[in-house]
Design goal:
Blueprint: E1 7-12, H1 18-27, E2 31-34, H2 35-42, H3 46-56, H4 68-76, H5 79-105, E3 114-117, E4 132-137, H6 140-149, H7 155-161, H8 165-171, E5 174-177, H9 182-196
Amino acid sequence: MAEPVPFVGLTGGLGAGKSTALAALERLGAAVLSTDAVVHDLYSDSGLREAVVERFGSEVAPGGEIDRSALARRAFADSDQRAWLEGLLWPRVAQRVAAWRQEVTERSPPPRAAVVEVPLLFEAGLEGVYDATIAIVADEGLRGERADARGHAALQERGSRQLAQAEKAERATFAVSNDGTVAELEEKLSAVLENLNR
């Protein structure tokens, strides 16, 4: 009987480097999935897009495509609107993640781990779904620079919804600092994978 593939949730604050970590984990032999990419894909579904436009207005979908920055400004500014959007998206994201996990467990040879990037992992109470969790943390100044460079809309609102970085690190199975080079980050994540596969 093959060993089960460790199912891992990856999280971290804005600008901590979750996407960089996810790419590094893939290079290290893990199967990876970004829930942000899943959401992006879901927005291409016409029924879901129509529901969003009906709720938030046509300005969130100029030319028929969801403008995620415009939607973020509308949704994150009001807790009821945000809750509505999350109620629409999260069950669908969960279905996609479950189907992906099933597919990953059937791969031969199996990957070293199945890692899902979930920005609001602890905030949404999802840590119990995973065998282990990884929190990517970085110096606050560095995180600010990275987030600014990417032009994050509604940064304050998004940031205020997230747990403090220290709390994420404390709650995670593994806290990994991303203050150095990508190679250094990859080395730390390699050690995490070794730990998972013992």
